[in-house]
## 1
Amino acid sequence: MAAMISIEHIEEFTRQTLGCNCPTDAFDEITTTDFMIGLLSCQRILISDRLLLLVLKAPGDFALLPDYARLVRYGMEERDCNNLNRCRIVLIGDSDTRIAEEIKSSFALIASGDSNLHLHWVSEFQLSFESA
């Protein structure tokens, strides 16, 4: 899987699209890797040992829903084990309304009471960056 967000656009995407208020120096250290959870291909972005982004395409198949729940748990565990401030799970693109509702419901159950775990659903258009 090619990275969904190139390293040179991570700060812009994180601030403008996700609404992150991390200090500027947090973006001095960014690492990005690709990995799999079940059948889901994900981009893992770590911003200065503070913020974990897990970026992947929105699901098009009910059969993948258990892998999304595993991804949420993975994000929580990595955040907690590494003393990170937040984990943001970013789904890119559209899904069937029923699938979207299932994901949101599952996320709400898993993340109940956890104010440092966020689900973002963004369009592919929001990954279009202007050249500087």
Note: The first strand starts at residue 30 and ends at 37.
## 2
Amino acid sequence: MQQYPEINALGELVCLRSDSNYSRMLASIAPGNSLLIDLPPAVPSYWDESIQAWVKKPEQPSPRHTWRAQTRAWTDDRSLDEAKADKIAEMRIERDRADAAQINIGGYSYDAHPAAMAAICQELQLAALTPTAVIQWTLASNLVRSHTLLQLRAVAVAIRARNTASRARYEARRASISTATTADAVSLVVW
């Protein structure tokens, strides 16, 4: 039995109908709806009456966007304040991710998440008591490498400098978000 798509006045697929009697199917559709012979494609689409064809919907910009059949566009229905709060939270996550990412210094990768930074600081405090001590430090690759106090201090300084830069970047993004006057302008701010 063949299937026929039923669409509403906006071109949105309502359902697929199947019946051996086409006239009976036509009589059972809702007022304002149409019955087509062309099956819809597997991708999300709408029927464009002006060109008599199925048109693929554009990609959804974000999970917060809702498809509006009347305008055939995705819209973000959050208030400006909600959009700003969501974007600032997103930027905070990106900042924290940047802060915790491994860092390469002198050809070696070091963990830089908060626990690793605390361990480096603790080791530096202990090593300060014996400045000529050799410190065994586990790299991000789990290899152990010998460091002097100055080498380990350089790692801590590099991590701190990168974190300071990512925080400055976050503050600049936050300022852009705060001065945005539309939800669309807020969505244009990226890490």
Note: The first strand starts at residue 3 and ends at 7.
